[in-house]
Amino acid sequence: MTTETRTSIVWDYAPAPESADHIRLKDRYGLFIDGDFKDPADGGYVPTINPATEEPIAEVAYGGPVDVTAAVQSARAAHPRWAALKDLERAKYLFRIARLIQERARELAVVETIDGGKPLRESRDVDVPLAAAHFFYYAGWADKLRYGTGASEVRPLGVVGQIVPWNFPLLMAAWKLAPALACGNVAILKPAETTPLTALLLAEICQEAELPPGVVTILPGDESTGASLVRAPGIDKIAFTGSTAVGRDIQAALAGTNTHLTLELGGKSANIVFEDAALDQAVEGIVNGIFFNQGHVCCAGSRLLIQESVRDEVIAKLWQRMGRLRVGDPLDKNTDVGAINSAEQLSRIEALVAAGEDEGATRRSVECELPARGYWFAPTLFTDVSPAHRIAVEEIFGPVVSVLTFRTQAEAIEKANNSRYGLAAGIWTDKGSKAFQVASALKAGVVWQNTYNHFDPTAAFGGYKESGFGREGGPAGLRPYLQVVR
Ligand code: NDP
Fold first, then answer.
1. From the CB of 266, is ligand 1 less than 6 Å away?
2. Ligand 1 centroid vs 222 CA: distance in angstroms?
3. For 34-93, what is each residue's pLDDT tens digit?
4. What are the backbone dihedrals phi and psi of residue 220, each rounded to the nearest 5 degrees, phi first?
5. So what's the pLDDT on residue 6?
6. Share of the chain above pLDDT 90, in %
7. Which of 380, 349, 351 is nearest to 363 (CA)?
């Protein structure tokens, strides 16, 4: 491993920690069933940990199989009245939730950061505003469902189980709940084990919005809670975001049943830089593509494809820019790269990075002072990567970018598509025609041109191949929550 020091220009920032004094977390959170927080019947309580300090934050209930059954019963009982509400009345609840998220934005951002490790700048400027935007957006669709689907008559599916990962806890909850509720479904959401808190604050928001009991259930727990929810009788649809391995397990469990399913799984997305691109902008896009949220992003631009003629220049600029990333306290407003979400995820990243070195790729990790406690991984760049190396094939889900090169446009397309995944891609070029040609040839659900990791509730998101199926966001995000009658 080669370690290089930072560039000679070192900006000395004063610490700028966001205050957490305004946070009013309880010591203990139960399961949110039937409009109230309840002790688990057959689960227990487990502390959720701040990954930047390893300190416990609060105790959170884990739902067992009896709790899952109770959640489904409450949701089933709530469904007929919710589905029968006038569309505009349903929309009003969603608008209220959106506004309450905005009102509690500062609190939600801080809690997201202490529970998950992501920089406050991101939870404050991306996660929380986008979560509110999803509720606003789908509130607008609630009385226009036929137009959104092009059908004459549509019906909700019923009770939907929604399982979300730890990388965008509140945003994924909003991403799943808003369209489901707008379409007249009721939902049971299972947050990830390591990041349940903002979903539980969202439960409080549902209470404040006077959402009828049972319309939203928040069922924290571990993987067995998720597995029970998937298999529970009385569930009409499962929407899952997470790893391909678990997605596969869920698909096998639901094969031959009438339960609808959408899967948003992993990725190994190609970020393609052509020689005619504005290279300084491309470097910003590469950084945003892979170091945003510590690389814990399903669509992260983790495979960087650079045209050979500009390879050295791009790598030199990128390495210089990486040296200026500020890694550390996620609550500091200047931090670019925060803590790795869990000890388990840190060891997965370390194992794949070790495999990259063993297989002969050249590793460069930014030299930076990492806090003594907590889970951290320095931004890392791999060159001399072959397309068969594990670091070019597998999702690392950390701040690690693997560089490959290409000579022609055709080779770029071939290499970008040479993946079992197909979630996203980025294209950096000055030529609009080239961008459209390449985008049309890429087998990826989302293709960004001269930008990366740009999210919007009006745009559909989803994958091909092992990245899953079904679309979330935009009008396309309504369809998986509706039956078309005619
Ligand atoms: P998982 O896919 O295991 O977790 C995602 C969600 O599914 C969590 O709520 C989890 O619960 C739940 N879950 C786990 N097992 C089951 C099951 N058998 N049935 C139903 N639900 C289940 O992701 P991990 O957190 O373990 O991360 C592993 C790897 O997956 C990462 O390293 C990364 O590569 C990838 N990943 C990809 C994501 C993406 O958006 N593409 C998101 C997260 C991870 P619990 O947290 O309680 O285990």
1. yes
2. 10
3. 999 999 999 899 999 999 999 999 999 999 999 999 999 999 999 999 999 999 999 999
4. -65, 160
5. 52
6. 96
7. 380
Whether 342 is in the pocket of ligand 1, judged by its Cβ within 6 Å, is: no
SS3 93: helix
Question: What phi and psi values does residue 66 have, to the nearest 5 degrees?
Answer: -65, -40
Identify the DSSP state of 125.
Answer: I
- Is residue 180 located within the same domain as residue 290? no
Say whether both 178 and 323 belong to one domain.
no
Range of the domain at 347: 270-449
Both 398 and 478 in one domain: the answer is no
Catalytic hit among 298, 395, 466, 472: 298
pLDDT at residue 8 is higher than 80: no
Q: Which amino acid is located at 254 in the chain? A: L
Pairing of strands 237-241, 362-366: unpaired
Same domain, yes or no, for 473 and 387?
Answer: no
Query: Per the structure, how many domains does the chain have?
Result: 2
Tell how far the Cα of 143 is from the centroid of ligand 1, in angstroms. Answer: 34
Mean pLDDT score of the chain = 96
Instruction: Give the pLDDT score at 13.
Output: 85
Q: Are residues 300 and 323 in the same domain?
A: yes
Helix (H, G, I), strand (E, B) or coil at 367: coil
Residues 341 and 355 in one domain: yes
**Residue 273 phi, psi dihedral angles, 5° rounding:** -110, 115
394 part of the active site: no
Q: Is 264 annotated in the active site?
A: yes
Q: Are 401 and 313 in contact (CB under 8 A)?
A: no
365 and 436 share one domain? yes
Could you tell me the CATH number of the domain that includes residue 231? 3.40.605.10
Domain assignment present for 2: no
Q: What is the pTM of this model?
A: 0.96
If asked whether residues 243 and 282 sit together in one domain, one would say no
